[in-house]
Specification:
This protein is mainly β. Helix content is 14%, strand content 40%. The strands form five sheets. The protein has a six-stranded antiparallel beta barrel with strand order 10-11-12-15-14-13.
Length: 395
């Protein structure tokens, strides 16, 4: 099986022109915050008891709020040294266009899409259901969650159809879902399926992990990225982002991934209010202990996280967390040993990497997290003041 592919942008073509690339600017404006859906027992009860819509009803209500996103980028290429060994022709500027999807979230004209759909774009346009194409401003982009927010101005509020944002925490495996988007340029196509799995993890464009991802077998293809995944109530529960591909193929094989809407709502609100998102960063690579490994290596605890690497100038480094001093391979698995073991975070036992990552993701840069660690056989406590996640969150 191939790795999860960024499924959004379908290339339209390349037109060459001589000369250099001009500078571009991203306009960031302060606008209304993104809508949020409430959660809790009442919402859960409503979501399970409300009358489900037919696929046709979902499409009729939601398709007008789904847009086609056309992103234009400019790439400078150097002359082929075999055809022009002396470089007489000079660099060439190629204009590339790619298609993706997006959806309206409010009457102020804000549109959610994927970061990778508009990554590096010098111009963005969106097309509505009436085929009217409008220029869009990039309000903000977050490569760590693969989310971007656009804004289209000059449209009357009645011309905009915001989609209702649901609560992805209520999603269950087996739930029926539909996806609306622009696969291979076929605008506002709808496909149906189920939620195949939950709690998947995919990689963002900058290499950061995106957690709690929804897996679906609703057909997704290039051009679907940035479009909505909706439940039977017509509520958006995710943003379609990637597809899994088989070796030698690049099309749909029934495994697609959507970023949960609860993640998107928080990111979109920050992008709209500030133009950017700050993610907390601890700065460690860890590996979960298994009872077998704990017994074999005589570790002081059967549960916790072995600290493999501590990033330089990170919160973990400032707090004094110690990295592994050796790597031991057992039955094909490599275990970092000799460093600290994280047993608890703010008093809560941690038994998986995802659990630690989820705790940090819910915090903000500047907050302090309390780490209960084993150093040798001694239990100690360290306080780490979280930093800001770098553009490339790797040690």
């Amino acid at each position: 099986m191939g790795a999860g592919a960024l499924g959004a942008a379908i290339a339209l073509g390349i037109a060459a022109a001589a000369g250099g690339v001009g500078g571009t600017a991203t306009t960031v404006r302060e606008v209304l915050s993104a809508p949020a859906a409430s959660s809790g027992p009442e919402t859960a009860s409503f979501a399970r008891s409300a009358h489900p819509l037919t696929i046709h009803e979902i499409y009729t209500r939601s398709a007008p709020g789904v847009v086609q996103v056309t992103a234009t980028t400019k790439v400078t290429t150097q002359p082929n040294p075999l055809l022009d060994p002396f470089g007489f022709t000079g660099p060439t500027v190629e204009t590339q266009q790619a298609l993706g999807s997006g959806f309206v979230i409010d009457k102020a004209g804000h549109i959610v899409t994927n970061y990778h759909v508009v990554q590096g774009a010098s111009r963005v346009e969106v097309s509505f259901s009436d085929n009217e194409r409008k220029p869009a401003t990039i309000v903000g982009r977050d490569p760590s969650t693969d989310v971007a927010v656009l804004q289209v101005k000059g449209l009357a509020a009645r011309a905009l159809t915001p989609l209702v944002l649901g609560n992805s925490d209520l999603v269950e495996v087996g739930d029926a879902v539909v996806a609306i988007g622009n696969p291979l340029g076929e605008d506002r196509s709808i496909t149906s399926g189920i939620v195949s799995a939950l709690q998947r993890q995919i990689s963002a464009p900058n290499g950061a992990p995106i957690d709690h991802v929804i897996q679906t077998d609703a057909a997704l293809n290039h051009g679907n990225s940035g479009g909505p995944l909706l439940n039977t109530l017509g509520q958006v529960i995710g943003v379609n982002s990637q597809i899994q591909t088989a070796s030698g193929q690049d099309g749909n094989i029934g495994i697609g991934f959507a970023i949960p809407i609860n993640t998107v709502k928080g990111v979109a609100a920050q992008l709209i209010s500030k133009g950017s998102v700050e993610h907390a960063f601890l700065g460690v690579d860890v590996q979960a202990i298994t009872p077998t490994v704990a017994k074999l290596f005589r570790l002081p605890t059967s549960h916790g996280l072995l600290v493999g690497t501590v990033c330089t100038n990170s919160a973990a480094a400032s707090a004094g967390l110690r990295a592994a001093t050796q790597q031991v391979t057992l039955a094909g698995d490599t275990w970092p040993l000799g460093g600290d073991i994280i047993a608890k975070v703010d008093g809560v036992p941690v038994t998986s990497v995802d659990q630690l990552r989820s705790v940090i993701a819910d915090m903000k840069p500047g907050q302090t997290v309390r780490l209960a660690i084993y150093r040798g056989n001694k239990l100690e406590t360290l306080n780490a003041k979280l930093g800001r996640q770098p553009l490339t969150p790797r040690c």
